[in-house]
Amino acid sequence: MEKQFSREDASMKKWIKELPLEQPSPDFMQKVMAGVAHSAMKKPYQPLISRKVWVVIITLFILALLWIYFNPSSSIIDSEALSWDSQMQWNNPFEGMKIPKTAVYAIGFMALFLLQIPFLKRILDKSYI
Amino acid sequence: MTTNTDHYLVEQTLSGNTQAFSELVLRYQDYVFTIAIRIVKVREEAEEVAQDSFIKAYEALSTFRGDAKFSSWLYSIVYRKALDCLRKHKRTKVVEVIEEITEGEAETIENALEFLELKERNAIIQKCLDQLPEQECSIITFYYFEELSVKEIAEITKLSEDNIKVKLHRSRKKLFELLKYYIAPEYTKYNGKAI
To answer: Which of A13, A127, B83, B116 could form a disulfide with B120 if both were Cys (CB 3.0 to 4.6 A apart)?
Structure first.
């Protein structure tokens, strides 16, 4: 068994080593180097908000929270300025509207249908591999 | 004439000399293309895979660790790109060979192949390789053609070394079985002898 295995192994190596190398089209190198040049010109990805700016924003936010926590009485927001809110009358424009139960079910089923699309797509993609 | 080593060319490329990278492309383009075509089987797609692999290698060159072989690192990119290409085109091959080849049959195949002319033998081997599933074909190519070790193949394919050994054994059996039908189609398991 061992002898057969090593003989098969040796034959296989000989036959496969004999195979010639496949050659790409003559302009292969040019295409690759054009791609490389294009890649070299591309600027590396830079996020819109840099890491430094994020650190500053988060620090300011934490400092503001701490400041509000330790100085609740001396708030920078004038409480009187917000009082207009309570004086305003808010009316719900959909107050009198009644939706039939059938429409509610229809909207519900539609939402469920839309929800399952990504799951179904993932299952289908997997089944092809 | 002195030949620059891969590592030297990588360093040169990293320092901004793209000409050094073109030397690497020239050195490996046939190997990369051969691996790509063995996996994807279609010439045009293999060329695209090979091109994308070189460009990806250029972009990721700074992540290449100097202690590893550049060729192995490059082949791992080609292998992944080729599998991505197959997934994109939703094409995979499954060949199941259940029959175990006997020692006598293996000897018959070996003798028959040795009698053939090199060109003819290559054509038959190539046809059989084309029929192997992509992953097995790539493992066979890495092991016998590129002469990579099981450990190196495991690193490229992200499979365990034991898994590679099992796959190598199975692929060899499948290849012998496929060769049997190409070389001696009249020799079947039903009559048990040459007609």
So the answer is: B116
